[in-house]
Amino acid sequence: MNWTHTRRLRVDPNHPEPDLIATAAHAVREGRLVAFPTETVYGLGANALDQHAIARIFVAKGRPATDPLIAHIASLDQLPDLALDIPQLAIDLGKRLWPGPLTLVLKRHPRVPANLSAGRDTVAARMPDHPVATALIQSAGTPIAAPSANLFTHPSPTTAEHVLHDLNGRIDLILDGGPTHIGVESTVLDLTGSVPTVLRPGGVPLETLRELIPTVAVAHRILSADESAASPGQLLKHYSPSAQVILFTGPVAPVLNRMRDTAQQLLAAGKAVGILTVDDERDHFADLPAHLFPLGPLSDLPAIARHLFTGLRELDSRGVSVILVRDVGHEGLGLAIWDRLFRAAEGRVIDVGA
Ligand code: TXA
Ligand code: MG
C-alpha cells in the first residue's frame, strides 16, 4: 500500500468545531480514509457509496475482503438509501435504540456497492451516538462505512492513540475526540432471516432486545467454551494482543486460586505475566511480580467494558507474554465482554468448574 501522512485533528467531543468537521467531511467526499470516534470504539470511515473508498478500508486494515462493513447514518431518513424492503421492526428498533450501539442487518439496496457487504445481498446499518460521528456523517452528506479502526485481528481502538498505533501512515486523517464511552462494539442484529438473530453481542444488552423482541435468537458460535474444544480451527482470530490470553471461567473462589497458581507457574518459568483484574480482586495478586491492569469494579460492567481493550493493549505494550483474565458473567454487557475475551483467548479457556 501507499504510505501517507496521517493528520490528527483534536476535536471537542461534545461540540465538534465546524471547521474541523468540514475538513474531515471533505476528505470523506474525496474518497479518503478518516478515523473518528463513536460511542463504542473508533471507526475507520470512508464514503459508503464509493466502492474505491471502501476498497481502501480493507487495504488499510489488512482485512480480508470476505468480512463485511457497517454503514453509519445520522438519521432514519438515510436508511432507505442503504436498504430495501425495510421491515417495520427495523423502524421500531431504530426509533427506540438509535442513535446507539445497535447494528441492523437488512436487505442491501442495489445502489450500495457490493464490496461494502463483502458481496452479500445484505447491508449492516447503524446510527452512532456521538456528536463527532453525527456531525461528520451529516456534513459529508453520505452514509459512512466504518469498521473498527484497528489492524485486522488487533483489539478495537478506544482512543486516538490506539488508532495511530495501528494505522499511522495508512489513513489520511483522524478526528481525535478522546476516549470512547462504551468500549465494546455495537450489537449486530440480523433481521433478514425468519427469526431476528444476534450475530455479535455488544453495547445493547441481549436483555434489552428480548424486551422488544421476545423471540430473538443468538447465533450459535457466540456461546460456550465447548465449541472451542470441538473446533478450535474455526475460531476467527480476533481482538488479539500479541500476548497469549488465557480466560478462566467457573465459580469465583477456585477461579481466583487457579489464576494465581497459573501466574506463579508462568513467573517461575521466567515469563512476564499480565493480569486483567476486577478491582475488588486486585489484592489476590498484589504480592506477585506480575503486571496488573484494573478493569473496574465487578459491580460496574460498563467500566469493565470501557477498559477492556485498553487493558489488552496496555499489557501488550509492557511486553508480557501471557495475559490472565476471568469471565465476569454473561448478564448485560457481560455477554459482549465474554465474547471479546473468548476470541482474544483463541480457545484457551480454563473451566475450573468442569
Ligand atoms: O460499534 C461498532 O459496530 C463499530 C463502530 C465503529 O461503529 N464498528 C465495528 O465494525 O465494530 P467491524 O467492521 O469491526 O465489525 C462489523 C461486524 C462484523 O462482525 C461483521 O461481520 C458484521 O458486523 N457485519 C457487517 N455487515 C454484515 C452483513 N451484511 N451481514 C452480517 N454481518 C455483518
Ligand atoms: Mg472490528
Q: Would you write up a description of this structure?
A:
The chain is α/β, with parallel strands linked by helices and 354 residues long. The protein is built from eleven helices and 17 strands. Strands 1, 2, 3, 4, 5, 6, 7, 8, 9, 10, 11 and 12 form a twelve-stranded mixed sheet that branches. A five-stranded parallel sheet has the order 15-14-16-13-17, sandwiched between helices. Helix 1 crosses helix 5. The chain is globular. The protein starts with 6 loop residues before the first strand and ends with a strand. The protein binds threonylcarbamoyladenylate and magnesium ion. Magnesium ion binds next to loops.
SSE class: alpha/beta
Shape: globular
Helix content: 25-40%
Given as residue ranges, the uncertain stretches (5+ residues, pLDDT < 50) are 225-234
Discrete helix count = 11
Percentage of residues in DSSP E strands: 15-25%
Bound molecules: threonylcarbamoyladenylate, magnesium ion
Largest sheet, in brief, is:
12 strands, mixed
- The count of β-strands is 17
Order of helices and strands: EHEEHEHEHEEHEHEEEHEHEHEEHEHE
Distance between the termini: 48 Å
The average pLDDT value, as a whole number, equals 94
Rg of Cα set: 20 Å
List the helices and strands and how they pair.
Elements: E1 7-10, H1 18-29, E2 34-37, E3 42-47, H2 51-61, E4 70-72, H3 79-82, E5 83-84, H4 88-97, E6 102-108, E7 122-126, H5 131-140, E8 144-145, H6 160-167, E9 173-176, E10 187-190, E11 197-200, H7 206-212, E12 217-218, H8 226-230, E13 244-249, H9 252-268, E14 273-277, E15 291-294, H10 301-317, E16 322-326, H11 334-344, E17 349-351
Parallel strand pairs: 1-9, 2-9, 4-7, 6-10, 11-12, 13-16, 13-17, 14-15, 14-16
Antiparallel strand pairs: 2-3, 3-8, 4-8, 5-6, 6-7, 10-11
Helix pairs in contact: 1-5
Bound molecules: threonylcarbamoyladenylate and magnesium ion (MG).
